[in-house]
Amino acid sequence: MPKTRALTVDLAVYSLDCVKRSAYRFTDRFALDLKVEGNAAICTLSFDATASDQVKDIVVASFQKELLDQDLRATIRAETKDVRNLILAHAFSRTGLIGDEPLPVD
Would residue 73 count as lying in a domain? Predict the structure, then answer.
């Protein structure tokens, strides 16, 4: 029974960052060998020798679900970037960390 599974990810659909983030979530279940060829990420998932075919199938399906989740998270991050930065700027403006007084010169 082969201990690897290959998965091709279309980089027009999912970013390389999403592939890496998804793989990181599964580091306890497989090791990833990642190669980019043209507009595709070739993912070779290496499992423990004791993993059954059924377990491998389940993990690959879970990895594909995680890809979609990471893609949607990236979309939400991009869409809410300005609001998030505004909230952070407002929060830090009220801390007293930045004052109106000039810094002392040595």
Answer: yes
Question: What are the residues whose beta carbons fall under 8 Å from the beta carbon of 31, sequence distance 6 or more?
Answer: 45, 46
Domain presence at residue 49: yes
Any domain includes 100: no
Tell me how many domains the chain contains: 1
Supply the mean pLDDT for the chain: 91
pTM of the model: 0.78
Alpha-carbon distance of 14 to 29, in angstroms, equals: 21
Q: What's the Cα-to-Cα distance from 71 to each of 15, 31, 98, rounded to whole Å?
A: 8, 21, 36
Average pLDDT value for residue range 15-26: 97
Going by C-alpha positions, the residue among 62, 61, 64, 28 that lies closest to residue 46 is: 28
Is pLDDT above 80 for 96?
A: no
As a whole number of angstroms, the distance between CA 15 and CA 33 comes to 16
Residue 82 belongs to what domain range? 4-93
CATH number at residue 52: 3.30.70
